[in-house]
Specification:
Elements: E1 4-11, E2 16-23, E3 26-27, E4 34-35, H1 38-41, E5 51-57, E6 68-74, E7 78-82, E8 88-92, H2 93-105, H3 112-124, E9 128-129, E10 133-139, E11 146-153, E12 156-163, H4 169-182
Antiparallel strand pairs: 1-2, 2-3, 4-5, 5-6, 6-7, 7-8, 9-10, 10-11, 11-12
Helix pairs in contact: 3-4
Length: about 180
């Protein structure tokens, strides 16, 4: 059985962070790929879901450019990862799920902007605005003391901006709740 662990590192060239996947203490992605941003990677509620999973992205930082996809297979006691390049990994299901949740709950890597993005996303994640545009993401890294909100529908995006004090989670959460209440 292989052992999996996750390391979250800054990715300055892409103004975000990346999940580095360690298999038996070795970085699976190497220098060929950037890891997926934690907010994207951990958006999945449960890690024991079969199907395709993107675990790496192009070194340009763009998802969809030159991804590292794997196929996840599940049975009662194991989780497998395979791909068309011969990757064949097998994990104990209990250990795999535990490691995923430990990494997902670890927010020690977040600075105030990343923490605010997570908190605002938790408030707005299932919200709709005018004409049924649905929430897709929040970023506090685009403009200082500002949170950009993205809503989309049928490939069209609408952006909204929330001003916040740039220092406290409480102010950002208050502004998100106010936005949510005013958009109904």
């Amino acid at each position: 059985m292989n052992k999996i662990s996750f390391q979250i590192l800054p990715s300055p060239e892409t103004n975000d962070h990346e999940i580095r996947i360690l298999i038996d203490n070795e970085d699976l992605l190497g220098s060929d790929y950037l890891g997926i941003d934690p907010a994207v990677f951990f958006a999945v509620e449960e890690p024991d879901t079969a199907g395709e999973l993107i675990i790496g992205r192009c070194t340009c930082g763009c998802e969809g450019c030159c991804d590292f996809p794997i196929i996840v297979t599940i049975n009662e006691s194991t989780i497998g990862w395979t791909n068309s390049n011969g990757l064949n990994l097998l994990f104990d299901k209990i250990d795999y799920v535990r490691e995923f949740h430990v990494a997902k709950k670890d927010h020690s890597w977040e600075d105030i902007k990343r923490r605010v993005e997570r908190l605002v996303t938790n408030i707005l994640k299932n919200s709709l605005v005018n004409d049924n545009y649905s929430f897709t993401w929040a970023s506090a890294r685009i403009k200082d003391k500002n949170i950009t909100l993205s809503y989309s529908k049928n490939g069209t995006q609408k952006l909204f901006e929330l001003d916040w004090d740039g220092r406290t989670e409480a102010d950002a959460e208050h502004k998100a709740v106010k936005f949510l209440n005013n958009s109904r």
